[in-house]
# Entry
Amino acid sequence: MRILANTLVILGLVFLLASPSCTADEKNANKEGQTDNYVAIVNGKKIPRTELDHKMALIKKRAASAGQQLGEKRTANIEQDIVNNMVEKELLYQKSQDLGITVDPEMIDARMEQFKQQFPDEGQFQEQLSRFGYTEKSLRSEFEKNLAIQQLIEQEIAADVSIPDEELKTYYKEHPDQFKTPEQVKARHILIKTDSEAGEDERQAAREKIEQIEKRIENGEKFSEVAKEESECPSSKTGGDLGYFSRGQMVKPFEEAAFALAVGDVSDIVETQFGYHLIKAEDKKEASKKTFDEIKESLKEQLEQQKVKEKLPEYVEMLKEKGDVKINLPTVETPDKTSPEPTEG
# Structure
């Protein structure tokens, strides 16, 4: 099932909080003669224009917030990608129903609860639903569809995917760097900030403050407790704990000081672009390579997921060929390969 957690993402079939499953406009779209109100027909099922409009509104809003504008051609290409995704999702859902796949209501309940936890309270959850034209009933319907599609993919595709041990071993041998773990250090730090535009007096005050803290550490006070009291980094809440990190993850002066320490030692005062630091090395891990037995199961899952990813478009194409799909959008002569990823999530 962990393989299937990503299968909807593969073709952009993730749940989008911008496409009500049933609206008054959809009902109008089903009336004869109102062809402008739908963007596709999938085996007789009309996909209303409003679903596309909601998604495009979200894309344009996010593009504008990033200082970008979508031209006419780019907009048309994105619309085609979105409609294709909606068609694919509808085909998969219809197939799940043809095969008699049902979803346990408890699974839908769990998804609803998981989704609600993204919001601080019930009021904001309801506000978000209303904003995008949803009700709890239509939201449950979306989750039911996605779960039915997941079960379909498990039954029709994933069930036939198997990776023999020899293939796993070959992959392991041919991709050695993928299983290497670089040298790591686990450290705590105390930071006294200095602004990049701070004058000499401010920098001197910060330096004197870190020197006083250094003396407290030298006199035996516990590093983590002093960090909680004095550090101006968000990590102060956990006693300055930065966890494990490898080279390249911290600014150079900090990294060099941290990796030069023996476990248990505290550095001299280190200056970086963020201010003045004291660093304590808590633990170190030497560079290593995971054994085949250590990574076998995760690698098996990775390669199985890759095979499902490869087979899913073929399966959808088969459904298209056997079905009756009509797209009600103008064609674009030169496709833009950029996918409409800003709509997802």
About this structure: The chain has two domains: 4-164+295-343, 189-286. DSSP finds twelve helices and nine strands in the chain. The radius of gyration is 28 Å. The longest helix spans residues 292-322.
